[in-house]
Design goal:
The protein is mainly alpha-helical and 358 residues long. The chain contains 16 helices and 2 strands.
């Protein structure tokens, strides 16, 4: 999820009044789904780490609905022309990715797939944090592209540095040899230097903003702090795989929160038609929760059944493929550099649109 902060302030119909709030939805909603998403998902982590590792299967309760949510953007009516115009990107790209993953797996080169997954996942999560921070920045009427670039650079650099903190424990790197591992550690040192430089640059930019009388307000400041420390599990978890699982839980909650907030606002407006099924799910909180639980439970059941049947590797490969497809499609659907994306999503992110009381 990437957001261009400069181009999101779009006009709304005359019957709708834009209300600018610094919170994307409300203090409670934002803290629950975005700023404190790590706390909101803490019960899942505690169950798996402190109670019984078998509770780790609850990971799929949020993971699979998060993946499915990406596909809902295929059904937005105003996106059909864009999908037809770029048919290969939207329909051929996923086929190419699936073919490449299957070929590498069958060729005995799964390490390439898993390392790609690790690197792409790190970038994907970091960019989502950049995108949500951009929404807060726009809602504070701040369109400074220099600050946007500085914040994005700091978030991405810090995310990769933290992700490489215990890179020696990443399973695909086991047995690569001492010489190659030394080079990997050199990369980590380089990432640390880049992180320090980007954080200092961001601090300088924010200092200038404060000196100009545009002090960063609590919602934006809190999320910035979360964004640059989002990958902290890599600093204290014993293995890279376990750290990734712990880090991803709040990421999933953030994604579900922002996607279904957009769907709900869209279903309640007259700006565009909303497919009937999405309107039905989005308009009712109980129905939405039921759909998320049902999708997550189906993934949990599939995980348990396939593992007991001796197909754990197959299930793992399917999840890897789904994740890679999600990264790719998410980059298309949330590409705010595309005017069509800005037009379809922008109004639901940067303003709280309510019908004029008059």
């Amino acid at each position: 999820m990437t957001v261009d902060a400069q181009s999101l302030a779009l006009p709304l119909p005359a019957s709708v009044s834009p209300i600018r709030r610094r919170w994307i939805e409300s203090p409670l909603f934002d803290l629950l789904f975005f700023t404190l998403s790590g706390v909101s998902t803490l019960p899942f982590v505690v169950l798996a780490l402190a109670v019984d590792q078998r509770f780790g299967v609850l990971f799929f309760l949020l993971a699979f609905p998060h993946y499915l949510s990406t596909l809902t953007f295929y059904f937005w009516d105003e996106n059909r022309e864009r999908h037809r115009a770029r048919a290969f990107a939207f329909f051929g790209g996923p086929v190419v990715i699936a073919a490449a993953v299957v070929a590498l797996m069958l060729s005995g080169l799964p390490a390439i797939v898993l390392i790609t997954l690790f690197l792409w996942n790190t970038y994907h999560v970091a960019r989502q944090n950049c995108g949500i921070l951009s929404i807060y920045r726009v809602r504070s009427s701040n369109y400074d592209l220099r600050e946007k670039s500085a914040a994005n650079a700091a978030i991405i650099a810090t995310s990769f540095w933290f992700a490489f903190w215990n890179i020696e424990t990443l399973e695909p790197l086991h047995g690569i040899g001492a010489q190659w591992m030394e080079r990997v550690r050199d990369v980590r040192i380089g990432l640390g230097i880049i992180t320090a430089v980007t954080l200092l640059h961001l601090a300088r930019v924010l200092w200038k903003r404060t000196a100009a009388g545009n002090t960063m307000k609590a919602p934006e400041l809190l999320f910035l702090a979360i964004a640059v420390t989002f990958f902290h599990p890599y600093l204290w978890m014993p293995t890279s795989n376990s750290a990734t699982a712990v880090m991803l839980m709040p990421h999933y909650l953030q994604y579900l929160g922002i996607v279904w907030l957009i769907h709900r606002r869209r279903s309640r407006s007259e700006i565009a038609d909303h497919p009937r099924a999405l309107r039905w799910i989005s308009a009712s909180t109980p129905v939405l929760i039921g759909a998320i639980v049902a999708a997550g439970s189906a993934a949990i059941a599939a995980s348990i059944l396939l593992r007991h049947a001796g197909y754990a590797t197959l299930f793992g490969s399917i999840i890897v493929l789904i994740a890679l497809e999600h990264f790719y499609l998410d980059g298309l659907f949330w590409a705010f550099r595309d005017p069509a994306v800005r037009k379809s999503m922008g109004p639901y992110l940067t303003v709280s649109a309510v019908r004029d009381a008059a």
